[in-house]
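User: tokens in, sequence out, please.
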């Protein structure tokens, strides 16, 4: 029988630190709700695996590598069996440098890495015999596709008059149910795709995943261990053009409660324990060229540079265009990972991945239950589909927002599917 342990470590930063996520500097002056790193440990025979999900906007690849190296030695776990990811909360700690607006804090990074390592080790200490099962529900009222096409064929992020969504969300709420050997509910891993940017302001918050966890604990008890893993949500957010997200204050709480309701329904439907309880992982570090500006980007930068009234965002991207133009093409190390837990698999990519790639993985996965993992093992900005690398699409801007060649998502998807074949049941 498989063994499983779950631990949550508080990773709330000190007040006064910078909060990443916007084109402005925000210094934390309060705590709306605390931030956590959730660590899940699995053991089956001689194989061990760890999944860590952090309330953070992202986790740098270097930090993921250090955590993986330490845990591999301490737990006797193959490095490819350790997956680290971020929920993408825009009201969390200073883990990145973004222009002049926010700066990574080295002290916080050391604290965060230590808490992730401690959390995984404590999860291993708490491992007990477990039963795993999977089910899913449909949630189509919380997430919205945010890239639009107009009647004239032009594209915009967040739309405009006469514009319609270019694609569709992924409404699946995937649930990996974890019970004690006697059938007592122990924990759950919930996978859903939506940007984690509902709160704003200058107080720390885990956003809707935090409220989802609290709601599930109210239902299943204080000792219940819920974990949230964000799906591929690069072009998916909570903003409803018709206004549903803003009809009541603190929408993130409503969103978390609604997602918890979906997760609990799926949890109650997950009644068939996995027949296969083995665990396995596989990872490849791809070499993918960086994206460089084309003639249209250079023309944009020239227009902004000549305009004294240009906005902060335009000036930022003009500088990014010039920076990437000067650097030229660089080969980027891009880790992709499959972590199979019984009959379910987590597919990790290091970026804000477009939802279409998650759908591709679910459609083609050789492992029955596929759960895409956004911002896994690093962060390379947005990874869009070819059709939406267009003027007017924010996520396709060259520079820090979009660092990889436009074929990156397709290469990563193909490699993940190849890796899945090597660890399939």
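Assistant: Sequence out:
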């Amino acid at each position: 029988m498989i063994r499983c342990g779950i631990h949550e470590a508080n990773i709330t930063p000190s007040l006064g630190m910078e909060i990443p996520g916007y084109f402005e500097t925000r210094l934390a002056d309060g705590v709306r709700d605390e931030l956590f790193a959730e660590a899940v440990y699995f053991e089956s025979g001689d194989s061990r695996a760890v999944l860590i999900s952090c309330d953070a906007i992202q986790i740098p690849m270097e930090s993921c590598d250090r955590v993986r190296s330490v845990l591999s030695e301490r737990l006797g776990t193959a490095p490819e069996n350790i997956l680290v990811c971020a929920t993408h909360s825009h009201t969390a700690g200073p883990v990145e440098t973004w222009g002049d607006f926010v700066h990574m804090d080295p002290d916080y990074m050391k604290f965060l890495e230590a808490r992730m390592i401690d959390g995984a080790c404590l999860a291993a200490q708490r491992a007990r015999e477990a039963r795993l099962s999977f089910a899913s529900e449909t949630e189509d009222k919380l997430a919205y596709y945010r890239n639009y096409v107009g009647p004239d064929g032009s594209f915009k992020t967040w739309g405009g008059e006469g514009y319609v969504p270019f694609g569709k969300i992924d409404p699946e709420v995937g649930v990996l149910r974890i019970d004690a050997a006697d059938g007592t509910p122990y924990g759950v891993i919930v996978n859903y795709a939506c940007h984690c940017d509902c709160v704003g302001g200058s107080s720390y918050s885990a956003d809707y995943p935090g409220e989802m966890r609290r709601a599930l604990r109210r239902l299943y008890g204080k000792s219940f261990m819920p974990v949230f893993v964000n799906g591929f949500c690069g072009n998916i957010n909570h903003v409803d053009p018709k206004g549903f997200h803003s009809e009541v204050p603190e929408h993130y709480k409503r969103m978390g409660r609604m997602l918890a309701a979906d997760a609990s329904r799926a949890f109650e439907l997950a009644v068939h324990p996995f027949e296969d309880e083995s665990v396995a992982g596989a990872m490849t570090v791809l070499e993918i060229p960086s994206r460089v500006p084309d003639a249209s980007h250079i023309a944009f930068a020239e227009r902004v540079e000549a305009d004294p009234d240009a906005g902060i965002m335009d000036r930022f991207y003009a500088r990014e265009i010039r920076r990437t133009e000067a650097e030229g093409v660089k080969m980027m190390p891009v880790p992709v990972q499959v972590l199979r837990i019984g009959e379910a698999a987590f597919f990790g990519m290091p970026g804000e991945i477009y939802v279409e790639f998650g759908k591709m993985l679910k459609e083609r996965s050789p492992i029955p239950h596929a759960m895409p993992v956004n911002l896994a093992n690093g962060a390379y900005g947005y990874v869009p589909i070819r059709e939406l690398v267009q003027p007017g699409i924010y996520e396709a801007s060259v520079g820090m927002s979009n660092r990889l060649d436009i074929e990156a998502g397709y290469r990563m998807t193909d490699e993940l599917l190849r890796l899945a074949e090597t660890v399939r049941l």
